[in-house]
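Retro notes (design track)

What went well: tokenization of the new backbones is finally stable.
What didn't: we kept losing track of which sequence belonged to which structure.
Fix going forward: every design gets posted as structure first, then sequence, in one message. First example under the new rule, 76 residues:
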């Protein structure tokens, strides 16, 4: 139960749209809203980076951006 009258927003999917929306909401409302981002994966991989992995130019670990790194310090 939300007893603080603070809006809670749940964003499903952490692709470009979900990441952008979560960032905008967080920057706009700061501590005035609880924003939660949910995705089936634990990291983001830019689409074109997958080609570099596929052709052996880099490793998947080198191009993965873990979502835990996107948490804003005030929210952690």
């Amino acid at each position: 139960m939300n007893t603080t009258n603070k809006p809670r927003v749940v964003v499903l999917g952490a692709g470009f749209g979900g990441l952008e929306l979560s960032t905008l909401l967080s920057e706009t409302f700061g501590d005035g809203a609880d924003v939660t981002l949910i995705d089936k994966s634990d990291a983001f991989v830019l689409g074109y980076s997958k080609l570099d992995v596929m052709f052996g130019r880099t490793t998947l670990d080198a191009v993965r951006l873990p979502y835990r790194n996107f948490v804003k310090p005030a929210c952690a």
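Added context from the reviewer: The mean pLDDT is 87.
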